[in-house]
């Protein structure tokens, strides 16, 4: 019998959206539970590491967004055709996490002047460097995807993150990275993903 899945997170895209995209792409049913901020303190102690997202598979809890993402990516046969391809998928995901880590510094900075400096650096240095790198990887691979010939979980992650971070930082220059933009359009236009994006809840992040 197919397992039952429940994904619990806040009502935002952020760490859970790549997981939601995997489910929608693979047409695997799951309960998309969105916890209201005021309900979180009561729920927090029930979570393995007191954070979300948390996946329940047949009632068994799994925490840490990228552990969940990689677990499902493997399970759904989206991890490349050999161990090296899987490792490349993970390399690209981890490189994107480095970019995300830089962006999240914006949330923690309260000084408006320092915040503006951080944003300038992100838009003028961090994103251009990373987007150029991913653009080159796609160009060199030459198949429209990051690793091998088929869509992997790395494509889902990078496709989502390039759109999400560019929108958040109002980085319209993404238009200049033609391979990356074509990749983003391809991934966000995949069956299941496209329909989900059209109907998903509108959230701030
Ligand atoms: N490394 C964790 C980080 C999870 C995390 O920090 N989640 C935040 C939401 S984005 C959270 O649960 N915050 C509420 C809290 O810490 O009480 C992951 O990737 O899942």
What does this structure look like?
It is a single chain. This protein is α+β, with helices and mostly antiparallel strands and 205 residues long. It has two domains: 5-77 and 192-199, 3-Layer(aba) Sandwich (Glutaredoxin), CATH 3.40.30; 83-188, Glutathione S-transferase Yfyf (Class Pi), Chain A, domain 2 (Up-down Bundle), CATH 1.20.1050. It is built from eight helices and four strands, in the order βαβαββαααααα. It has helices at 17-25, 40-43, 65-75, 83-108, 112-141, 153-168, 178-188, 193-199; strands spanning 5-10, 31-35, 54-57, 60-63. It has a four-stranded mixed sheet with strand order 2-1-3-4. The longest helix is centred in the middle third of the chain and has 30 residues, at 112-141. The relative contact order is 0.14. The model has no long low-confidence stretch (mean pLDDT 97).
């Amino acid at each position: 019998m197919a397992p039952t899945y429940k994904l619990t997170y806040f009502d935002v895209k952020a760490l859970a959206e790549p997981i939601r995209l995997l489910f929608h792409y693979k047409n695997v049913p799951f309960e998309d539970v969105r916890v209201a901020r005021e309900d979180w303190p009561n729920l927090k102690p029930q979570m393995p590491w007191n954070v979300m997202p948390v996946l329940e598979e047949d009632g068994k809890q799994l925490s840490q967004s990228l552990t969940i993402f990689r677990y499902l990516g493997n399970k759904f046969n989206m991890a490349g055709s050999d161990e090296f391809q899987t490792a490349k998928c993970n390399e690209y995901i981890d490189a994107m996490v480095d970019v995300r880590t830089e962006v999240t510094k914006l949330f923690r900075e309260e000084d408006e002047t320092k915040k503006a400096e951080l944003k300038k650096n992100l838009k003028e240095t961090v994103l251009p460097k990373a987007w150029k790198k991913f653009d080159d990887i796609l160009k060199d691979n030459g198949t429209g995807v990051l690793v091998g010939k088929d869509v992997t979980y790395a494509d889902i992650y990078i496709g989502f993150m390039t759109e999400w971070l560019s929108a958040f930082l109002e980085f319209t220059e993404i238009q200049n990275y033609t391979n990356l933009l074509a990749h983003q359009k391809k991934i966000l236009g995949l069956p299941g993903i496209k329909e989900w994006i059209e109907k998903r809840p509108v959230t701030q992040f």
